[in-house]
Design brief:
- This protein has about 130 residues and is α+β, with helices and mostly antiparallel strands.
- It has 3 helices and 6 strands.
- The chain has a two-stranded antiparallel ribbon with strand order 1-2.
- Strand 1 and strand 2 form a beta hairpin.
- The longest helix is centred in the last third of the chain and has 20 residues.
- The model has no long low-confidence stretch (mean pLDDT about 75).
Length: about 130
């Protein structure tokens, strides 16, 4: 006699095991509404806000993004969650960004430029103080 797939529970009144039979009413279908909390599109940098799941998915499809379920997205412009940058790559990206800002290769405001200069001075000062360590 095989017990595969069968479930049992202990009946305290009769002091014996009773087989549990699934009831048909216990199986319900999950209904997902189309309305969602407002969310900004990950596909473009246009700042579009969506409150409809179907419209958001249509927008992603238009921009070459595939929704694989839940919050996992793949496609053009979206980073792969399994990708991990190594330390050398991060260091190179930071150095490139620093040089781009330093030599005005990207447009930033005067306030941001002054903040960068101040941070650079603070860094150089810290470097001189801690050089001997």
């Amino acid at each position: 006699m095989s017990n595969t797939g069968r479930k049992w529970k202990y009946d305290r009144e009769n002091k014996c095991l009773v087989e549990i039979t699934p009831k048909r009413e216990e199986h319900f279908h999950f209904v997902q509404e189309d309305s969602i909390d407002p969310v900004e599109s990950l596909a473009t940098n246009e700042g579009k806000i969506f409150d409809s799941r179907s419209k958001l998915m249509a927008h992603y499809k238009e921009n070459g993004v595939e929704c694989t379920g839940g919050s996992q997205f793949t496609g053009r412009g979206l980073s792969d969650a399994s990708y991990k940058a190594d330390k050398e790559e991060i260091k190179d990206m930071a150095a490139k960004a620093h040089m781009d800002i330093k030599y005005d290769r990207i447009p930033i405001s005067e306030k941001e430029k002054e903040t960068c200069r101040r941070e650079e001075r603070q860094y150089q000062s810290w470097k001189q103080r801690n050089w001997h360590r």
